[in-house]
Amino acid sequence: MKINTLILAIFLCLPLKNVAQKPTKKIHWKAPVALGVASLLLYNSSAKDAQRTLYRDNFSSFSTKLDNVLQYTPTILNVGLSAFGMKTKNTRADRLGMFVIGSGMYVIATQGLKYAINETRPNGSEHSYPSGHTATAFFGATLLAKEYGENYPWIAVSGYTLAGTTAILRLANNQHWASDVLMGAGIGIASAEMASFLYPKIKTKIFEAKSAWNFEPQIAPNYYVARLNYSF
């Protein structure tokens, strides 16, 4: 049981290594891959039995809905802090673009796996693996860290702390297995990394496509026409 708890704690802290990291044009895969591997290590009956014992002995009377709100707090911070004059790396439009692309990625990944695997939750309900709440929280925390981490490391630490707390509360509420939250965290971080990498390329392609079109109106006393050209 102690070993399983230690694995969970260590790997949930892995994203903190990216705090204050300068933006690069590559995808940082180490944290999501490590979280995925840790999830697979704890995806077994002995780990589940240990978690059942831990829950029964310490959290059987515990219940909170805080995790339902807490999952969104890193994203709320990302939106709200710029309104208070915090220096951001990207414009509001670019932050929205990365959020939309990354959200689509982690939602498709988590929901697809939930229904493909159909793991039973600790409380007996369906669709446990992976944790969507944890994916949402770590996705938001990673975008938050990328946006503010270099100039305000404490903001990045706060975001990952909120995400980690969300994951722990999912376990304490008996909603998920440890393997679920680890995989959810990995998916959330990977989605943020991929969105940050892909969005500038998509944006460039869109603007290139727009610049290829040329709209030229021609006005004369007796007529009005417009010419539309596309350059290859």
Care to describe what's here?
The structure is a single chain. This protein has helices at 2-12, 30-41, 45-58, 66-70, 73-83, 92-117, 132-148, 153-172, 178-212, and strands at residues 213-220, 223-230. It is mainly α and 232 residues long. It has one domain. The mean pLDDT is 85.
What's the arrangement of secondary structure elements?
Layout: H1 2-12, H2 30-41, H3 45-58, H4 66-70, H5 73-83, H6 92-117, H7 132-148, H8 153-172, H9 178-212, E1 213-220, E2 223-230
Antiparallel strand pairs: 1-2
Q: What is the end-to-end distance? A: 63 Å
> Structural class per helix/strand content?
mainly alpha
What is the overall silhouette? globular
Q: How many DSSP-defined strands?
A: 2
Order of helices and strands: HHHHHHHHHEE
Our Rg estimate from Cα atoms comes to: 22 Å
Q: What about the largest sheet? A: 2 strands, antiparallel
Tell me what portion of residues adopts beta-strand conformation.
Answer: 5-15%
Count of DSSP H/I helices? 9
Q: Can you give the helix content as a percent range?
A: 55-70%
Question: What strand order characterises the main sheet?
Answer: 1-2
Unreliable stretches: none
Number of domains: 1
Instruction: Let me know the average pLDDT.
Output: 85
